[in-house]
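The following record pairs a protein chain with its ligand, adenosine-5'-diphosphate.
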Amino acid sequence: MSLAVYPGSFDPVTYGHVDIATRAAAIFPRLVVAVFDSPSKSLLFSTQERVDLFQRSVEGVPNVEVRPFYGLTVDFAREIGAAVLVRGLRMATDFDFEFEMALMNRKLAPDIEVVSFMSSLEYQYLSSTLLKDIARLGGDIREFVPDHVANALRHRIKDSAKAPK
Ligand code: ADP
């Protein structure tokens, strides 16, 4: 077991993602968090912003690197010599989607294994989507994300409220 990749949109990173990255980094010698450039969902943060926000969130974990990626996850994993894809699973909500994607990735790249980490209890209900909704409606998000992410979200939401509709 050597290099593992943890791919995702991370728009933005939450403590749920940080928890998975930290736990994976305790098992694999090196972990690359791979920030997907163009997921099929609308994004609040640019690719570079999502990379920077995640990077600052794992500053204290020496064997984690955060990089952007484009195209298929399995192609990126092969390009950097990773044999494992890490994903996180929150109760029933993620299972169907994650299972389907793991099987498709296995079909595309039988040499790459998917390893899923069960979400910690306190983050089971936490998603970037819900977080953004709470922030938009003025709720307190400080217990779900590091301070720098909460500040970036607050600013982005304030700016997008000012933009003409
Ligand atoms: P996606 O990759 O589907 O765009 P995300 O970027 O939000 O979604 O998440 C990346 C990975 O982290 C996925 O495997 C997702 O299930 C997992 N994840 C998201 N939020 C949490 C959480 N609160 N706890 C554990 N895993 C999570």
